[in-house]
Amino acid sequence: MEKTLKFLADLKANNHQAWFMDHIGEYERAKSEVWEFAYIILTQLSVIDAKLNPDIEVERFISNLINIRPKKEISYHGFFDIAINPLDNDGNEPAYFIHIEPDDQSYISIRYVPDVFGLQVMRNYISKNTALLDTILQDCYSAGFVLEESSMMPALPKGYLIGTPGENYIRLKAYELKSAVDLLKDRNELIQDILITFKAALPFLQFFREGLRL
Hints:
two-stranded antiparallel ribbon, 7 strands
């Protein structure tokens, strides 16, 4: 991912439309590298996870680099995100997530950012299956994952009392297990590392699928 990271680093230092248009060739090469990378990951993940369809067009999983803000000059995100899921529930489901950003900010994760209905369903499911989630998380922590807690509410949501099983998980508005990744590794080694890491966190992803009955 060296070309992509180099382009993104330069873009962060020159985040305006004129520079971007002058370097459209580097952008196209970076985009092609990301698309190829996403295709390889999807294809090989589908062997591990039978719910994934390797024939889905990978561009559906890749974030848009352009950041359009009303009445302001166009700017650009300094990263690419790849979020791979089966699209069984219109995207309202857990995903394999790869964040591509220079300056050692890249990571992979299992990520579920629910809508209001999905959040209600999962909170109820978590309160009834807290012991299982605890066990899954302990195994994932041993594999190098960290639970992202930045979305945690200061208090329990309405309808839940202090002492409710899994209350710390219920206070979260999004669920993400993160693991750092070195995207400058040899590509084959990098892909194998990502697949091994995702496989270790597959029970976490499946926990949410089961809660959503997907």
